[in-house]
Amino acid sequence: MQALFSQAVEEQIDTQRQMSSLVDELRGEMRALGEQVRSDVDRMGSTIAEPQAATDALQRDLAALRERVDGLATEVRSLLDEAVTRIRADIEDGLVALAEALLTAQGARGSRAATPPPAATAPAAPMTPAPATAPAPTP
């Protein structure tokens, strides 16, 4: 059973590593977006005559980022669902194994009893003499 729990913990750690990697990737995307926004702002400053083009570029960048974040969120959700399913299955397997072990141990204790204890007998009721009756007259 401990092996099942250890495996569940290892799977949880692996899932956390995957999620950490996805979060790092998202941070990189956010950093890149920040740089792109700075570049767009610099370009806007030099081309004040073209504000619509700069706004459009910024909207495209934001839409691309939104799609990427949605994709990462779906991936993380999927990983978490898989991890929860695996952990639940491992816990159920562990509980079944524990129940079987307990039943086996209980059965072993029951078979160790050599013989059942003797049945308790009730004390015998005292014998009381039958009431005396007078002999019937003889004709």
3D architecture notes:
- With 139 residues, the protein is mostly helical.
- The chain is built from two helices and no strands.
- The longest helix has 62 residues, at 51-112.
- The radius of gyration is 42 Å and the shape is rod-shaped.
- It starts with a helix and ends in a 27-residue tail after the last helix.
Number of DSSP strands?
0
Category by helix and strand content: mainly alpha
Largest sheet: none
Q: Which residue ranges are poorly predicted, with pLDDT under 50 across at least 5 consecutive positions?
A: none
Number of helical regions: 2
Percentage of residues in DSSP E strands: under 5%
Termini, distance in Å? Answer: 95 Å
- Structural shape: rod-shaped
Mean pLDDT over the residues: 76
**Fraction of residues in helices?**
over 70%
Structural Rg: 42 Å
Oligomer: single chain
Order of helices and strands: HH
Topology record:
Layout lengths: L1 H45 L4 H62 L27
Helix pairs in contact: 1-2
Task: Explain briefly what this protein structure is.
The protein has 139 residues and is mainly α. The protein has 2 helices and no strands.
Keywords:
0% strand, 139 residues, mainly alpha
